[in-house]
Hints:
Elements: E1 9-15, H1 27-41, E2 46-52, E3 55-61, H2 68-84, E4 100-104, H3 109-117, H4 119-122, H5 128-138, H6 145-148
Helix pairs in contact: 1-2
Amino acid sequence: MGQSLVKNYLHIVFSTKHRQPLIHPPYENELHSYLGGVCKNLERQPIKIGGYTDHVHILCMLSKKIALMKLVEEVKSHSSKWVKTLDTSLQNFYSQDGYGAFSVNPRGVPKVIHYIGNQHEHHRKKTFQDEFRIILKEHGVEYDERYVWD
């Protein structure tokens, strides 16, 4: 084959360090836009970005040029540095060390877009930790509870 053709959807999830509830309006929308810009700069087309006070969901395309680990590292480090410039109350904003990344079937993309867009409603009933456990179970990811949270 003369060229590389890639179309992989990826759902990335990570929280603030110790799940600190630091993502609030008006900075919430600004943060999501900023994350989208970082993705674009890394040739990862963002499709939907959302979250709640203590975590972020990113649905994007997987690039054929940059590794997933590098994308997440860049997204988290750039956004953490940037958020701290917005307000002195955000000086302790950090992302957790780990993350979750899950492939999405193209037919499932609309469902994930809806899910990410509904985060505020969703988290009236469920914590991030409960949500993340469900996502891990849905994707068949084995984990040790002692090492998932920081």
